[in-house]
Design brief:
The complex is a heterodimer of chains A (339) and B (279).
Chain A: E1 2-5, H1 9-16, E2 21-28, E3 31-36, H2 55-58, E4 62-71, E5 74-79, E6 86-91, H3 93-106, H4 114-121, E7 123-128, E8 154-158, E9 162-167, H5 170-175, H6 186-198, H7 210-216, H8 222-227, H9 235-238, E10 246-253, E11 256-263, H10 284-303, H11 313-317, H12 324-333
Parallel strand pairs in A: 2-6, 6-7, 7-8
Antiparallel strand pairs in A: 1-9, 2-3, 4-5, 4-11, 8-9, 10-11
Chain B: E1 8-17, E2 24-31, H1 34-39, E3 47-52, E4 56-61, E5 72-77, H2 81-87, E6 94-101, H3 107-110, E7 114-120, H4 125-135, H5 137-140, E8 146-152, H6 161-168, E9 174-179, E10 189-190, H7 193-200, E11 207-212, H8 215-227, E12 235-238, E13 254-255, E14 258-259, E15 266-268, H9 269-273
The chains are: A alpha/beta (339), B alpha/beta (279).
Amino acid sequence: MLLLNKDQITSWLNKLIPAYQVFAPVKEGDYFCFQQIRSGEQAVLNYTNSRIPPKEILFPRSEKLFCYRCETGGVQLTEQVDESKKVVVGVRPCDAKSFLLLDKVFNGDQYVDPYYLTRRNNTVLVGLGCNQPAATCFCTSLSGGPFSAEGLDLLFVDIGDQYLVEVVTERGKELLSGMELPVAGQEAQEAARAVKESAVCSTLVDLGGLKYRLDVNFDDPIWALLAEKCLGCAACTYTCPTCHCFDIVDEAAGKEGCRIRNWDACMFPLFTLHGSGHNPRPTGKERFRQRIMHKFKYFVDNYGTIACVGCGRCILSCPVNLDIRQVIEQISQAGGDQQ
Amino acid sequence: MKNPYVPAPVKLVRHVVETDDNLIHSFTFQFLKEEDEKAFVYRPGQFAEVCVFGKGESPFGMASSPTEPGILKFSVARVGVVTSALHEMPEGSILGVRGPLGNSYPLEEFKGKNLVIIGGGFAFTTLRSLTTYILHPDNRGDFGELTVIYGARNPGLLLYKDELAGWEKRSDINLICTIDAPADGWQKKVGFVPAVTKEVAPSSADAYAVVCGPPVMIRFTIPVLEELGFPPERIILSLENRMKCGIGMCGRCNVGNKFVCKDGPVFSKAQLNKLPPEY
């Protein structure tokens, strides 16, 4: 464990900027968002969390897959794989964990998504522990924690004027090369321990019985009840660090064009609408159920883990105050005797 | 890292109107590059994403059989942006194909067994692939009796009419064609596929049934098959759901915890019985 003075951050980032695309939280209006920074001063590390997760650095809201030009008797295709080296600074542990979940989708046994995976392999994640988890945070219910280093290359722990730096991987270590940081003494380690102990997620969600319910409650009346309030706006999926659904469209003019992928969402009726007009998820009830089932049952069935990291963004962004923690509780309790 | 999103360029070598209502056209493609053709190793029941550059791509089951080397054939109904554009494409046009995608009919399980292939309307495409594959001299000996029951609303809506005529003359396939209502000049069966299946009553002994068709046909055919003694493990269906990526990532075609694109499109009734009916 090393020590980094807070006033060294700017110069450290400035040192990284020529070699990497450096992304950090920056203030935009009332919110924070991850952006590529041109100067270390732009980074704001005393923030709670970004409104949109850093997922978009590896899996952008909109990206070109390839471009094409139709010619007589053929077509020229140019792949658009982004091979630039990146560093993301200030990643919260919940978001770091989300990348491990996205890896399962995009780096599968059968197929690999080269756009995500190339960026992923070229990206170093510098985490920032959460001294004061927000009221909407519930990472500890999902085997995460405010100072979990899972999925990170470095983890910074804010101990006042300094960061205690936990070196998690070799890649992380390389990022600090030439900094000659002092090793953290006992005092700093004590301070870090105190910070960690005082950082508590106020809500604990009981997920114990949820999977058992979801295995059998596809036809439960609870879904219609829960979905009644939902507007289907998909803000929850848009701000979710683990949602990975996308659409693929062509944008073209004349003989030239690009195939583009854009984020999409299971909350939209068009998402599953067949050409025939048939829709297997015709109403909000089916779509709401799909979102919950995907994260808490189907993902568990396929990958052995829940596709939620407890970041609480969906709670913050919901226009009708649907709170996933309460939704989980209601589902778990509905028909409780049948378990 | 192989990029599963990039299509192989193909040339449209044949574009024919398949049905009298002009709604279904068949498209035969040839790969422009030999390496793409070699890499495209497929089995009956699989599908591919066909793209019209500038309009997008859509998934279609291969109607051709791997026993017909050098070409890929698809039969496509005109329903949306991509398919409408496809229907306008003149022969010689350059399009894209990416695949093969999905699983296939379980040919290994079928070996040595009798097969009852039941199709309705324009869902006969991958069933044509399967039938053509089985009828190939190299493969015919691997399978037992072959019964094909194929229905359409009227004679003009049957796909592959020339080939059906050819199959009728063969002794190693029992082809039963039916139409929904009597029509001038139609000498064969009249009636819906489930009723005709009941009438033909193919034996379930040592047999698999493969069913592809509109949902209503499937719904009423399955009880008939069950009555004939086909267990759910030996009733094989092919699902359709809206798809984009075709490789289990874009998240829209799932039925329960299975993706139609990656884990399907072919499922046994036994497998589907364990999944929610979201298709």
